C-alpha cells in the first residue's frame, strides 16, 4: 500500500555543500538518516557497485524530505549541456511557501539563483496562486508556490516531463493512486518561459491522491502533488539517458509504502516494469528500510521505501520534530 510521497533524491558533487544550502535556505534541517556505504541493492540500475555518502533530511513543517546523494567511488556525471526541459524525466520540485519574496531573498542569500520573480501560476490564476523559479547553487531547479499556505514546508510537488500526457495520467492514477485531477491545461505558460522557452505550448495536468497519507510517517507526509508536463517539441529522450542513477541531477521520487513486497508483486502482475526488486539496507543511525524501484512509461525511476526500524520510537520523533524544537536545536548548534 502506498502511504504518501516520502522524499525526492538529488545526485550532487559534494554532499556537505549541497546539504548546507537545503538546510540553511529551505529548512530541511532534521536529518533522518546519514549513511556512507555501498550501492549493492541498486546494481540492476547502475550496473556496477559503487560507494556513496547520503543524507535524508526533512522540514519540521512537514512535506516530503530531500535525499542528498554523492558518489564517493567515482566522479558523478554532470547533466549534459544539450539536456533541457523538453526532455522526459524529473524537471523540478515544488515547495509551498507563505511569502515568495522573502523566501527568494533567503535562497539568494545562500547562493541560490533566482530564475523568475513571483508571477501568476497560469492554470490557477483564478485562485490567485503565484509561483517563482530558482535553482540551488549547483543548478538543480525548484519552484515556490504561494497557494494560501500559512507556512513554508517541505516538498509538496514534483514536475515530470512525459511524452504522452494521457498515457501518463492513466499510469499515475491506476498504479500510484493519483486519482484527483486538480487541473488539466493546454497553452502557453509565461511563468515558465525561462525554463521551456518563450511562447512554447505546454500540456500539463496536476494530480493528487484522494487517500490521506497513511503509515508511520502520516503526521509528516503530505499526499504530494505530481504535475505531468508534455512540452511542444518533446525530444523523446530521457534526461538521464547515458547517465546512471545517482549522477548529478533530480534522480528519483520516493513513496513511503507498507507491505513493499505485496505492493511490488501486485504492480508486476499488472505489467508495471520493476527496475529493482525489494532489498533491505541499513541506512545508518539504527535505521533500516526495504527499497524497490519501478519505472513510469517514459523510464523515470520511482522508488518505494518501507521503514523497518528507527533509532528511537516513532512517538518520540513525532514529539520532537516540530518548528520550536528544531529552531532551538539550531540556535544551540545541535543541528
Topology:
Layout (H helix, E strand, L loop, with lengths): L1 E10 L3 H10 L5 E9 L4 H4 L4 E8 L6 E7 L17 E8 L3 H10 L3 E8 L9 E6 L5 E6 L8 E7 L3 H12 L3 E9 L4 H4 L4 E8 L16 E7 L17 E9 L2 H10 L4 E9 L5 E8 L5 E9 L4 H7 L2 H9 L4
Parallel strand pairs: 1-4, 5-8, 9-12, 13-16
Antiparallel strand pairs: 1-13, 2-3, 3-4, 5-9, 6-7, 7-8, 10-11, 11-12, 14-15, 15-16
Give the structure's gist in a few sentences.
The chain is an alpha+beta fold.
CATH superfamily: 2,3-Dihydroxybiphenyl 1,2-Dioxygenase, domain 1
The protein's oligomeric status is single chain
CATH architecture: Roll
* Backbone shape: globular
**CATH fold name, please?**
2,3-Dihydroxybiphenyl 1,2-Dioxygenase, domain 1
Q: Compute the number of strand runs.
A: 16
Distance between the termini: 33 Å
Low-confidence stretches: none
Radius of gyration: 19 Å
The overall number of domains is 1
For the largest sheet, list the strands in their spatial order. 2-3-4-1-13-16-15-14
The CATH class is identified as Alpha Beta
Classify the beta-strand content into a percent band: 35-45%
Order of helices and strands: EHEHEEEHEEEEHEHEEEHEEEHH
Q: Characterize the largest beta sheet: strand count, sense, and whether it forms a barrel.
A: 8 strands, mixed
Amino acid at each position: 500500500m502506498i502511504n504518501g510521497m516520502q522524499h525526492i533524491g538529488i545526485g550532487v558533487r559534494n554532499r556537505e555543500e549541497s546539504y548546507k544550502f537545503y538546510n540553511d535556505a529551505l529548512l530541511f534541517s532534521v536529518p533522518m538518516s546519514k549513511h556512507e556505504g555501498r550501492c549493492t541493492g541498486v546494481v540492476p540500475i547502475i550496473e556496477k557497485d559503487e560507494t556513496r555518502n547520503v543524507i535524508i533530511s526533512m522540514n519540521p513543517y512537514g512535506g516530503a524530505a530531500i535525499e542528498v546523494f554523492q558518489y564517493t567511488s567515482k566522479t558523478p556525471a554532470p547533466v549534459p549541456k544539450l539536456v533541457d526541459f523538453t526532455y522526459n524525466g524529473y524537471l523540478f520540485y515544488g515547495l509551498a511557501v507563505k511569502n515568495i519574496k522573502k523566501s527568494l531573498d533567503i535562497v539568494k542569500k545562500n547562493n541560490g539563483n533566482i530564475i523568475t520573480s513571483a508571477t501568476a501560476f497560469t492554470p490557477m490564476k483564478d485562485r490567485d496562486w503565484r509561483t517563482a523559479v530558482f535553482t540551488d547553487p549547483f543548478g538543480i531547479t525548484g519552484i515556490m508556490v504561494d497557494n494560501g499556505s500559512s507556512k513554508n514546508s517541505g516538498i509538496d510537488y514534483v514536475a515530470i516531463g512525459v511524452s504522452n500526457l494521457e498515457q501518463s495520467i492513466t499510469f499515475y492514477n491506476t498504479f500510484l493512486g493519483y486519482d484527483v485531477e486538480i487541473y488539466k491545461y493546454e497553452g502557453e505558460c509565461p511563468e515558465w518561459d525561462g525554463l521551456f522557452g518563450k511562447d512554447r505550448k505546454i500540456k500539463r495536468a496536476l494530480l493528487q491522491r484522494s487517500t490521506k497519507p497513511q503509515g508511520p510517517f502520516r503526521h509528516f507526509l503530505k499526499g504530494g502533488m505530481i504535475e505531468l508536463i508534455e512540452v511542444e517539441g518533446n525530444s523523446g529522450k530521457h534526461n538521464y539517458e547515458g547517465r546512471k542513477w545517482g549522477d548529478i541531477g533530480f534522480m528519483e521520487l520516493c513513496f513511503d509504502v507498507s507491505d513493499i513486497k505485496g505492493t511490488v508483486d501486485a504492480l508486476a502482475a499488472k505489467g508495471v516494469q520493476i527496475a529493482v526488486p525489494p532489498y533491505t539496507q541499513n541506512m545508518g543511525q539504527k535505521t533500516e528500510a526495504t527499497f524497490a524501484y519501478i519505472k513510469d512509461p517514459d523510464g523515470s525511476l520511482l522508488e518505494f521505501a518501507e521503514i523497518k526500524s528507527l533509532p528511537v520510537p516513532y512517538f518520540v520523533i513525532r514529539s520532537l520534530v516540530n518548528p520550536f524544537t528544531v529552531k532551538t536545536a539550531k540556535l544551540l548548534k545541535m543541528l
